[in-house]
C-alpha cells in the first residue's frame, strides 16, 4: 500500500492524498490550493498539462472529509479530466458541497464572462485562455450525480479489499475523520485521515468522536503550535463586544465571516444572546446568500447537531431566525445598508476580507471611528483581514488607499479548528506502541515542526512531515 501527498503538504490548503493498493486507487479529498497565486498555479497546471499530477481516470473512488473548498474544490475538475467513480461522504457534506461548488462555478462563469465581454472584443483584445481549474455549473452537476452519502459509524465496503468508516470530526456540519481498512496478502491495515479536527463545546456541533486504534494516522496541524486565547464562552465573548461597540456607544459592528459553518455558529449564538440578555432593538444584517442557503442545511440536519442546539430547537422551533435578523439577498440591498444610520451588526463574507460583499462594508466604514471590525478567525498572510489584524494604519481596497480609523478587534471563540491541546487529544487516542507513523499535514511548516516535537515527547517516535509528491510505502 502506497500513500502519496499531493496537497496540504507543508501548507494549509489543497488537501489531496492518494492511497494505492495492488488494484485500487483512492483519493482522500480533492481540494483547491489557495497557497499558490494565479501565476504559479497556471505554471504548475501547464507543466502537468492537467490540474492534477496524476491521471484522473485511474482513480477508483474519492473520499471527502468535509465540504470546505480547500478539501472539495477540485472535484468537478477530476470529472472533467476523466474520473468516473464515486465520491463518498456524509449526507450533510453532500448538501453543503453542492452549495459551495455551485457558488464557485458561478464565480468562474462571472470571471469568464468579464474576460470575454463584447467590450473587450470591440477593443480588439485577444481572448484569454480559460484557466485549467475553472469549471461551470454543468461540471458541478455531473460531479454531484456521482456522490454517495454514508452515515457516521456505518462500515461501508468500497471494494473487495477496502472498507471505510466515517466518524464525526466537529469543525463543520457533516465533517468526518475517515478510517480506511485495507486487506493485502491476508493482512489488515488501518489508516485514519483526520480531515479538519474540530474543538469541544463549539456552537451547534458535536464534539469530535473517538476513533479506534489504527496503524497510520494522517493528522492536520493548522493550530499545531497555538492555543486559543479566549477562555469565555462564545455567547459571553460576543455579548461583551456587542455591548461595548453598539450599545455603550451608538456604533456599528462588522463581522467578516465564512458563509458555511462560521456564520451559522454566529447566528445561533446571537439568537441565544437576544433571548438571554434582553438587548435593545439592534438590527443584525446577514449579508451572504450562500450563508442563507447553508443555514437552511443546518436547520435540516438538526438531529446531527449537539445537545444544546437540539434542546434550543425543541424549545423554540428555530435555531437561527430572531426578530431583529434581516437576510440581505440582493447586491442592492447589501449596498443600501450603508445608509442605515442606527447601531447595527453586519455579518458578511468572506472571513479573511478577501473578496465578497464584506469588502464594500469595510470600505464604507474603515474611516468611521464609531465602527468596529471584529475578526473571528484565521486570516492568511497578505489578505486584507491579515493587514487589519497586523495594525496597518492604512489599507487599499479596489485601488483606493484609506486610513484605518475604525476599531479592529479579534476573538477566536468561533474558530472551527481545534488548537494544539485538541490536536494532542486526538493523537493520544492512539497507543504509541501500536501506531506506526503519524503524518502531519494541513499546516504551516513551523506549526507542523513544533507539533512534531510535542508528540515526539509523548512517545510517538515516527512523525513525518511530507513534502508535496512524497510517497510512503505502508
Explained architecture:
With 474 residues, the protein is of the alpha/beta class. It has helices at 38-48, 69-72, 75-80, 91-115, 118-122, 137-144, 234-247, 262-277, 289-300, 307-316, 331-336, 358-365, 384-389, 420-427, 445-457; strands at residues 2-7, 16-20, 25-28, 61-63, 86-90, 147-150, 156-159, 162-168, 176-184, 187-193, 216-220, 252-256, 283-287, 325-327, 344-348, 371-375, 394-397, 400-403, 407-410, 437-441, 463-464, 471-473. Helix 4 packs antiparallel against helix 6 (137-144), helix 4 runs antiparallel to helix 9 and helix 7 (234-247) packs across helix 8 (262-277). The longest helix has 25 residues, at 91-115.
List the topology elements.
Blueprint: E1 2-7, E2 16-20, E3 25-28, H1 38-48, E4 61-63, H2 69-72, H3 75-80, E5 86-90, H4 91-115, H5 118-122, H6 137-144, E6 147-150, E7 156-159, E8 162-168, E9 176-184, E10 187-193, E11 216-220, H7 234-247, E12 252-256, H8 262-277, E13 283-287, H9 289-300, H10 307-316, E14 325-327, H11 331-336, E15 344-348, H12 358-365, E16 371-375, H13 384-389, E17 394-397, E18 400-403, E19 407-410, H14 420-427, E20 437-441, H15 445-457, E21 463-464, E22 471-473
Parallel strand pairs: 3-4, 4-5, 5-6, 10-11, 11-20, 12-15, 12-16, 13-14, 13-15, 16-19, 20-21
Antiparallel strand pairs: 1-2, 1-22, 2-3, 7-8, 8-9, 9-10, 17-18
Helix pairs in contact: 4-6, 4-9, 7-8
Offer a quick outline of the entry.
This protein is of the alpha/beta class and 474 residues long. The chain has helices spanning 38-48, 69-72, 75-80, 91-115, 118-122, 137-144, 234-247, 262-277, 289-300, 307-316, 331-336, 358-365, 384-389, 420-427, 445-457, and strands spanning 2-7, 16-20, 25-28, 61-63, 86-90, 147-150, 156-159, 162-168, 176-184, 187-193, 216-220, 252-256, 283-287, 325-327, 344-348, 371-375, 394-397, 400-403, 407-410, 437-441, 463-464, 471-473. The strands form four sheets. A seven-stranded mixed β-sheet has the order 6-5-4-3-2-1-22. A seven-stranded mixed β-sheet has the order 7-8-9-10-11-20-21, covered by helices on one side.
Amino acid at each position: 500500500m502506497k500513500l502519496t501527498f499531493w496537497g496540504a503538504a507543508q501548507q494549509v490548503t489543497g488537501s489531496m492524498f492518494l492511497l494505492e493498493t495492488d488494484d485500487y486507487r483512492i483519493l482522500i479529498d480533492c481540494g483547491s490550493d489557495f497557497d499558490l497565486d494565479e501565476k504559479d498555479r497556471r505554471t504548475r497546471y501547464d507543466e502537468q498539462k492537467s490540474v492534477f499530477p496524476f491521471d484522473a481516470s485511474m482513480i477508483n473512488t474519492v473520499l471527502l472529509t468535509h465540504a470546505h473548498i480547500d478539501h472539495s474544490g477540485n472535484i468537478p475538475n477530476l470529472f472533467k479530466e476523466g474520473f468516473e467513480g464515486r465520491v463518498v461522504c456524509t449526507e450533510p457534506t453532500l448538501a453543503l458541497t453542492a452549495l459551495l461548488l455551485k457558488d464557485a462555478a458561478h464565480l468562474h462563469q462571472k470571471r469568464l464572462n468579464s474576460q470575454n465581454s463584447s467590450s473587450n472584443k470591440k477593443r480588439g483584445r485577444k481572448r484569454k485562455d480559460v484557466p485549467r481549474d475553472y469549471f461551470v455549473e454543468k461540471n458541478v452537476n455531473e460531479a454531484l450525480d456521482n456522490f454517495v452519502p454514508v452515515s457516521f459509524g456505518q462500515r461501508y465496503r468500497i471494494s473487495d479489499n477496502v472498507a471505510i468508516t466515517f466518524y464525526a470530526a466537529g469543525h463543520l456540519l457533516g465533517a468526518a475523520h475517515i478510517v480506511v481498512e485495507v486487506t493485502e496478502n491476508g493482512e489488515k491495515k488501518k489508516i485514519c485521515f483526520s480531515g479538519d479536527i474540530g474543538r469541544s463545546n463549539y456552537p451547534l456541533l458535536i464534539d469530535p468522536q473517538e476513533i479506534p486504534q489504527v496503524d497510520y494516522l494522517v493528522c492536520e496541524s493548522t493550530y499545531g503550535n497555538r492555543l486559543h486565547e479566549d477562555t469565555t464562552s462564545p455567547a459571553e465573548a460576543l455579548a461583551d463586544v456587542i455591548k461595548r461597540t453598539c450599545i455603550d456607544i451608538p456604533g456599528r459592528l462588522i463581522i467578516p465571516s465564512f458563509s458555511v459553518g462560521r456564520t451559522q455558529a454566529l447566528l445561533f449564538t446571537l439568537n441565544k444572546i437576544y433571548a438571554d440578555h434582553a438587548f435593545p432593538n439592534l438590527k443584525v444584517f446577514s449579508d451572504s446568500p450562500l450563508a442563507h442557503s447553508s443555514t437552511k442545511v443546518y436547520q435540516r440536519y438538526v438531529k446531527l447537531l449537539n445537545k444544546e442546539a437540539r434542546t434550543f430547537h425543541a424549545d423554540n422551533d428555530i435555531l437561527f431566525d430572531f426578530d431583529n435578523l434581516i437576510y440581505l439577498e440582493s447586491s442592492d440591498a447589501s449596498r443600501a445598508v450603508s445608509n442605515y444610520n442606527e447601531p447595527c451588526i453586519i455579518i458578511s463574507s468572506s472571513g479573511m476580507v478577501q473578496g465578497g460583499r464584506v469588502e464594500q462594508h469595510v470600505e464604507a466604514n474603515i474611516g468611521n471611528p464609531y465602527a468596529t471590525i471584529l475578526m473571528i478567525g484565521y486570516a492568511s498572510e497578505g489578505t486584507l483581514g491579515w493587514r487589519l489584524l497586523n495594525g496597518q494604519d492604512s489599507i487599499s481596497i479596489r485601488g483606493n488607499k484609506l486610513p484605518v480609523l475604525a476599531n479592529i478587534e479579534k476573538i477566536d471563540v468561533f474558530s472551527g479548528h481545534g488548537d494544539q491541546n485538541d490536536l494532542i487529544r486526538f493523537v493520544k487516542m492512539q497507543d504509541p506502541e501500536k501506531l506506526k507513523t503519524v503524518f502531519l499535514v494541513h499546516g504551516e511548516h513551523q506549526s507542523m515542526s513544533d507539533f512534531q516535537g510535542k508528540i515526539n515527547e509523548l512517545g510517538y517516535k515516527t512523525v513525518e512531515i511530507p513534502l508535496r509528491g512524497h510517497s510512503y510505502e505502508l
